[in-house]
Write a structure and sequence with these properties.
It contains five helices and eight strands, in the order ααβαβββαβαβββ. With about 160 residues, the protein is α/β, with parallel strands linked by helices. It is globular.
């Protein structure tokens, strides 16, 4: 377990993670936005430093839409629901309305941010269900629109 700042930054360096200040977040969002394959940005910082507002402001300046999902208050079923077909002979994934709306707004407005707040506070099944969303930009057969940027945020946790 990391006990001091140097030990923590050494761990980040080994993982290829570059710590930066909150003031650099808009620049990082700009870089991620212009990548051919958008990568997920993960913000780690204490409560109240402005992680959510700075991302919301960045998206608003682009005329975009921000959807915040607070993992501390969600269940897996809210984002990953398997349903039987009308015939009852097979089942498949039914994207939740929030994801359909996110893609629709991204298409209409040209920019949308899916902000995954309290990423490390969510139920383990929920976090596992959304790893493909952050890595592959999809949940089952539902794909995020190219104009959606995924940003995860969390408060530091012990270890």
């Amino acid at each position: 377990m990391a006990t001091d700042k140097k030990e923590l930054t050494d761990t980040w360096d080994k993982l290829g993670i570059s710590p930066t200040s909150i003031g650099q977040v808009p620049t990082l969002l700009d870089i991620a936005w212009h990548m051919p394959r958008k990568m997920t940005i993960c913000l780690v910082g204490e409560t109240g430093i402005g992680k959510t507002p700075i991302v919301h402001q960045w998206c608003t300046r682009r005329g975009g839409y921000t959807k915040v999902l607070n993992f501390g208050h969600m269940t897996q079923e809210e984002v990953s629901m398997i349903m039987f077909s009308e015939q009852g002979d097979r089942f498949g994934f039914v994207p939740p309305d929030l994801m359909l709306d996110l893609n629709k707004r991204a298409e209409e407005q040209g920019c949308a941010v899916l902000f995954l707040d309290e990423w490390n506070r969510g139920d383990k099944a929920l976090v596992n269900a959304l790893f493909t969303l952050t890595d592959d930009r999809r949940i089952h057969n539902f794909h995020l629109h190219d104009s959606v940027l995924v940003v995860a945020a969390m408060n530091p946790s012990d270890g």
